Amino acid sequence: MIAKVLLVIAFVAVAVAVAVGIYCRRHTGTVDGFILGGRNVGPWMSAFAYGTSYFSAVVFVGYAGQFGFKYGISATWAGIGNAIIGSLLAWWVLGPRTREMTHRLQASTMPEFFGKRYDSRALRIAAAAIIFVFLIPYTASVYNGLSRLFGMAFALPYDVCVIGMAVVTCVYVVLGGYMATVMNDFIQGIVMLLGIIAVIVAVILNNGGFSEAIISLSQIPAEGSAMQGPFVSFFGPDLFNLLGVVVLTSLGTWGLPQMVQKFYAIKTGPAIKQGAIISTIFAFVVAGGSYFLGGFGRLYEGQIEYAANGTPIYDSIIPTMLSTLPDVLIGLVIVLVLSASMSTLSSLVLTSSSTLTIDFINGNIIKNMSEKKQLIWMRGLLVGFIAISALIALFQYHSSVVFIAQLMGYSWGALAGSFLGPFLWGLYSGRISKASVWCSFVVGVGLTAVNMGLALSGGTPLIASPINCGALCMIISLVIVPAVSLFTPAVPFQIKPPTPESAIDREYDRELAQEELESATASAAADA
Question: Cβ of 408: how many Cβ atoms within 10 Å?
Answer without folding.
Answer: 26
